Amino acid sequence: ASVSEPAQKCCTENIQPFLTSILEELMGPVSSGFTEVRSLFEKEVNEIIQDFQKTNDMTRLKENVDQFMTLPFNSVKMEPCYLKVNLLQELLQDLKNRFKVYRIDFVIQRTQNFMQELMENAVYTFEQLFSPSLQADSAKVATTIEKVKLRVLK
């Protein structure tokens, strides 16, 4: 009870006025990281479509989709997404000094984990929506992949 009032006053005067601007600063790298995840997903699906249009090979398409399912765990391909969030290191350093924010690496790591989780969900959803189409007429497969891609991106 004796600490509550001074703590509230401290938060109201020294932290709350800055929260909006801090959030805006932090959202830049976070948003660009998630945008990069979206772009990577779209690029990889487009490559599957292009390969299928060239080969019209359903076996190879299945192999490409299986390979695509490992995308969230492919550190080389996911690296550009993760690098966008590393900009938080500099932004959070300023917060560390001003507000005694510790565990900057934890914030970055959790953000990168969420990015990987988002990619996992996207490829899983893609596979679930597309897998019934693997039995369909090969003439419609490229169009179906495009529709599924757009649905997942939505």
Describe the overall structure.
This is NIBAN protein. Belongs to the Niban family. This protein is mainly α and about 150 residues long. The chain has one domain (about 5-154). About 85% of the residues lie in helices and about 0% in strands. It has six helices and no strands. The protein has helices at about 5-55, 60-70, 75-85, 90-100, 105-130, 140-154. The mean pLDDT is about 90.
Structural class: mainly alpha
Q: What's the number of extended β-strand segments?
A: 0
Which residues sit in consecutive blocks of at least 5 with pLDDT less than 50?
none
Distance between the termini: 49 Å
Average pLDDT rating: 88
Outline: elongated
Strand coverage percent: under 5%
Q: Give the count of structural domains.
A: 1
Number of helices: 6
Q: In angstroms, what is the radius of gyration? A: 22 Å
SSE arrangement, N to C: HHHHHH
